[in-house]
């Protein structure tokens, strides 16, 4: 894939010589649990030489049901995220849903995330871009990858050059998502590092009626495919007990399985980075 701009997130580089892993629970449940996950993930990532970013939401504003658990809210949630970043000594990413949340969240986290459903929202992109923080923008489930060029353009026009683009599956009929891996080189050609969201790609939006379903058995095969393609970053939701998680449990990776997931990712990523000359495979000019 074509060379993309490197994005600095606190003290790590996304798009550089090392794969970056962004992982954590879907939503903040308890502070102690989130901190434990951050510390465990940092340890696993260090073992394989991966950069690590802790991820979690302070408010899941897009839950299927109005009665679903949404998290501790913006004030408490951002305080937790800031403290987790300090205590675990890791960068932190969280998603925002409204323009007014951008500046507030930017004071507590290192990377702002734009949810897939909201990636076309001009005011949200502009507000996030003006904070001076790097952005991780998820491609909408209804958009073609080349259409993310307009999204990147909005960010750059609003003052943000440091944009990561994230693939998280495309709508494939009701309650189903499918990953078109062509989207990763297409988005990387826009001059942005690319991230693969492995766990949301196996989600079944609204598939359980009052909440989303998913099938975590497909997470590792998709990660292997993405790693073989040559991604810059990997996004995944992990939980000590996914079946008891308050959000996205069906598609979350059990914390006890994470090391093996990272080990297999490492073996493929190492081959790709050391042995494959993607420039020689670039036929775009022919």
Description:
The chain is an alpha/beta fold and 286 residues long. The protein has one domain (7-276): Aldolase class I (TIM Barrel). It has eight helices and 15 strands. The chain has helices spanning 31-47, 74-88, 99-106, 122-129, 148-157, 183-188, 219-229, 258-275, and strands at residues 7-9, 12-14, 20-24, 51-55, 92-95, 111-114, 135-138, 163-167, 170-171, 177-178, 194-197, 203-204, 213-214, 233-239, 253-254. Helix 3 packs parallel to helix 4 and helix 4 crosses helix 5 (148-157). One of its GO terms (biological process) is keto-3-deoxy-D-manno-octulosonic acid biosynthetic process. Its main location: cytoplasm. This is 2-dehydro-3-deoxyphosphooctonate aldolase.
Question: What order do the helices and strands come in, and which of them pair?
Answer:
Blueprint: E1 7-9, E2 12-14, E3 20-24, H1 31-47, E4 51-55, H2 74-88, E5 92-95, H3 99-106, E6 111-114, H4 122-129, E7 135-138, H5 148-157, E8 163-167, E9 170-171, E10 177-178, H6 183-188, E11 194-197, E12 203-204, E13 213-214, H7 219-229, E14 233-239, E15 253-254, H8 258-275
Helix pairs in contact: 1-2, 3-4, 4-5, 7-8
Keywords: Cytoplasm, Lipopolysaccharide biosynthesis, Transferase
GO cellular component, one term: cytoplasm
Catalytic activity: D-arabinose 5-phosphate + phosphoenolpyruvate + H2O = 3-deoxy-alpha-D-manno-2-octulosonate-8-phosphate + phosphate
